[in-house]
């Protein structure tokens, strides 16, 4: 069992930690590099959305680091303080990325709709997971181990659907920033490094969910033997 735990749980965990280190490292690096035009992240996001004909999305400043997100329900693009007011390449890249999600919403981008549809059941699964793992693994309740398989299957599907959503938003951001001349060709490298590192965290999350699924599936089959 130890070798399977190492393969399916520990390695994906290390990969996830590396992905988090990488994205913070790239963010710290490129948040120190000011763009030549000095445009704020808030203005970059507004310009990207305006180019796509979006005029009804509010851009707000929020607290935290890398807490940026797009809220499709309230039509709100939330940027962390450093990215809202920042003029760095990291701020421009992340702000434009979130604007890319707003464009996806407007265009009814299929993977985004699939992810939105999965959010309720995914949230329920995440809330149940600690109890399922504790009861199934530590209290030896076999039925809960089977339930854990289904929960991790849901999480793996959610992470899989998330991949095209995030990669597409980054692609839109890189393209729009160049088209609008917000960044130049040399600055494009910094934006790409930042967004590619962020995208890797979603790849790591998908691999981790697959590892958990494989582990509990194997555990379930062993209990059946």
How much strand content do the residues show? 5-15%
The geometry reads as elongated
Which sheet architecture does the biggest sheet show? 3 strands, mixed
| Helical content (DSSP H or I, runs of 4+) | over 70%
First and last CA, distance: 15 Å
Domain module tally? 1
Sheet with most strands: strand arrangement? 1-3-2
Describe this structure in words.
By secondary structure, the protein is mostly helical. It has one domain (2-224). It contains 7 helices and 3 strands; from the N terminus they run ααβββααααα. Strands 1-3-2 form a 3-stranded mixed beta sheet. α4 (89-106) packs across α6 (142-179). The mean pLDDT is 89.
Write the layout of secondary structure elements.
Layout: H1 2-30, H2 41-51, E1 58-62, E2 69-71, E3 76-80, H3 81-85, H4 89-106, H5 110-138, H6 142-179, H7 185-224
Parallel strand pairs: 1-3
Antiparallel strand pairs: 2-3
Helix pairs in contact: 1-7, 2-4, 4-6, 4-7, 5-6, 6-7
What are the salient characteristics of this protein?
225 residues, elongated, 7 helices, 76% helix, mainly alpha, 3 strands, three-stranded mixed β-sheet
Outline of this structure?
Helix content is 76%, strand content 6%.
